[in-house]
TrEMBL record:
Keyword Mitochondrion: yes
Entry superkingdom: Eukaryota
The reaction(s) this protein catalyses: N(omega)-methyl-L-arginine + pyruvate = 5-(3-methylguanidino)-2-oxopentanoate + L-alanine; N(omega),N(omega)-dimethyl-L-arginine + glyoxylate = 5-(3,3-dimethylguanidino)-2-oxopentanoate + glycine; 2-oxohexanoate + N(omega),N(omega)-dimethyl-L-arginine = L-2-aminohexanoate + 5-(3,3-dimethylguanidino)-2-oxopentanoate; 3-oxopropanoate + L-alanine = beta-alanine + pyruvate
UniProt KW Glycoprotein keyword: no
Required cofactor(s): pyridoxal 5'-phosphate
Function: Multifunctional aminotransferase with a broad substrate specificity. Catalyzes the conversion of glyoxylate to glycine using alanine as the amino donor. Catalyzes metabolism of not L- but the D-isomer of D-beta-aminoisobutyric acid to generate 2-methyl-3-oxopropanoate and alanine. Catalyzes the transfer of the amino group from beta-alanine to pyruvate to yield L-alanine and 3-oxopropanoate. Can metabolize NG-monomethyl-L-arginine (NMMA), asymmetric NG,NG-dimethyl-L-arginine (ADMA) and symmetric NG,N'G-dimethyl-L-arginine (SDMA).
Record-stated family: Belongs to the class-III pyridoxal-phosphate-dependent aminotransferase family.
Subcellular localization(s) per the UniProt record: Mitochondrion
Subunit composition and interactions: Homotetramer.
Protein name: Alanine--glyoxylate aminotransferase 2, mitochondrial
Organism: Frankliniella fusca
EC number: 2.6.1.18, 2.6.1.40, 2.6.1.44
């Protein structure tokens, strides 16, 4: 049992000594003292089903025994050296991670020179001047923002261009560099950011100008009708034309350094508003966007911070679902199952540009982080986590679609695998967002019945479901029953108020 400070004592400390911008969920924030797999426990021992996994940070389960054992064993051996020395874990992990890249990226190639910090992972072979590495090389860092920072730097140095494109509504991090590609007013401070950054129209088939029932690659269709066939999505071309306009009107000589895209826009809510909300691009869009960027000299960067490591079910990486092959992949969050660990994976040719100056990251690739990362990969393989995301996620989506058909306030259910969004509306036809008070009531009700869900989107009206990837069908049944009850309570109340 928990014997630490009381809830009230901790609230006082929080108000007094933590930055005021640190927000907490729920009218009365939860004090969480323990976690096990898909479960969280508060100070009284009450159990909650965690459908938010610390914003997809917990991938294989809270305190997964195998990951905990790997971290403990490494902590008892060696915590840290920085990468000025060699240690076995970083080499093993870099190799395993590079090997997770799809298809022909696994082909070995000969690299002639060793120049950058990135290739520290192959120093012995490099001494010989010629060595074999997987086509991908890895730079370990500590957070998603750091990874995207580095990706932006790589894109600019490699292409010798400055301009970057991201999509409105995207979230790529909070460092001053990447704050600019996070395209959302609620995450903006009154300081100059986003120099040379252009935000393209968000290809959102539900709230955007174009899109309909066949547009998304999801087991559930949008409620919006469209004339497109299941294989050919007209919305894709329309949003593509908007991207072309960015090249035409905004980019110097139409040239670009890089495009950042999440494979499914995710991210979280802060304050009154939020971002993301699990927006899925129309089928075929990203492929065409990548082609356009490459024709104009840029590189394509996949932000897999939320969509990587099998979460979308069908594939290990979210970008594979779009049939694209990025030049740079950034990853974090679930990669360390809650341990600070992130990476940039790219080609040796792109990585080489870092040899132009010194580049260093004190904690990136430390032995404990690498031991954790390796054990996460082991668990994903041994427990067939990706398959679980596909099976349980598809079942979840189908059950949620039934709620959508039952309750008018559920405007849209979308997603893939265990990356799910439920957009709540006050009017199905106009898709006006459900008002904040009503949304909060439904969301708090779920918490009171023992289910923790995230929230997101510009108007904070999307329920976000991104649980630890170990949840099962019984958990889904429980969560759907809780949601059904909360929605019924809301609907009955709205009816009473209308009469
Ligand atoms: N990219 C995406 C898609 C994210 O969701 C986040 C975090 N919400 C980041 C980047 C930034 O990661 P971090 O908070 O670890 O800096």
């Amino acid at each position: 049992p928990y014997t630490g400070k009381s809830f009230d004592e901790m609230s006082t400390t929080r108000d007094k000594h933590l930055v005021p911008c640190l927000k907490s969920y729920y009218k009365k924030p939860l004090l969480i003292t323990e976690g096990h797999m898909q479960w969280l426990f508060d100070q009284t021992g009450r159990r909650y089903l965690d459908l938010f996994g610390g914003i997809v940070t917990v991938s294989v389960g809270h305190c997964h025994p195998k990951v905990t054992a790997a971290a403990t064993a490494q902590m008892n051996t060696l915590w840290h050296t920085t990468n000025i020395y060699m240690h076995p874990k970083i080499h093993e992990y870099a190799e395993r991670l590079a090997d997770k890249m799809p298809g022909d990226l696994k082909v070995k190639q000969t690299v002639i020179r060793q120049t950058s910090a990135i290739t520290y992972t192959y120093p012995r072979l490099a001494e010989k001047g010629v060595f074999h590495v997987p086509v991908q090389v890895v730079y370990f860092v500590n957070s998603g923002s750091e990874a995207n920072d580095l990706a932006m730097l790589l894109a600019r140095l490699y292409t010798k261009q400055f301009d970057i494109i991201s999509f409105r509504n995207a979230y790529h991090g909070m460092s001053p560099y990447v704050m600019g590609i996070t395209a959302h007013s609620t995450w903006r401070f009154d300081v100059p950011v986003a120099q040379g950054v252009h935000h393209a129209m968000n290809p959102d088939p539900y709230q955007g100008l174009w899109g309909g029932k066949h547009c998304r690659d999801s087991p559930v269709q949008t409620t919006r009708d469209c004339a497109c066939s299941p294989d050919e999505c007209e919305a894709s071309s329309k949003y593509y034309e908007q991207l072309e306009e960015v090249f035409k009107y905004s980019l110097p000589r139409g040239k670009v350094a890089g495009l950042f895209a999440e494979s499914i826009q995710a991210s979280r809510r802060r304050g009154r508003h939020g971002v993301g909300g699990t927006v899925q691009f129309p089928k075929g869009f990203l492929k065409k966007a990548y082609e356009l960027v490459r024709i104009n000299g840029g590189v394509c960067i996949a932000d897999e911070v939320q969509t990587g490591f099998g979460r979308t079910g069908e594939h290990f990486w979210g970008f594979e679902g779009h049939g694209v092959r990025p030049d740079i992949v950034t990853m974090a969050k679930g990669m360390g199952n809650g341990f600070p660990l992130a990476a940039v994976v790219t080609t040796p040719a792109i990585a080489e540009v870092l040899g132009q100056a010194l580049h260093f990251n004190t904690f990136g690739g430390n032995p404990v982080a690498c031991a954790v990362g390796l054990s996460v990969l082991d668990v994903i393989q041994e427990e067939r986590t990706q398959e679980n995301c596909k099976v349980v996620g598809t079942y979840f989506l189908q059950e949620l679609a039934k709620l959508r058909d039952q309750f008018a306030c559920v405007g849209d259910v979308r997603g893939k695998g265990l990356m799910i969004g439920i957009e709540m509306v006050s009017d199905r036809a106009t898709k006006a967002p459900m008002n904040n008070k009503h949304f909060t009531d439904v969301w708090e009700d779920c918490k009171n019945m023992g289910v923790l869900i995230g929230r997101g989107a510009l108007n904070g009206n999307v329920l976000r479901i991104k649980p630890p990837m170990c949840i099962n069908k019984e958990d889904v049944d429980y969560a759907v029953a809780v949601l059904r009850k909360a929605l019924q309570t809301h609907t009955d109340k709205a009816k009473r108020q209308a009469n």
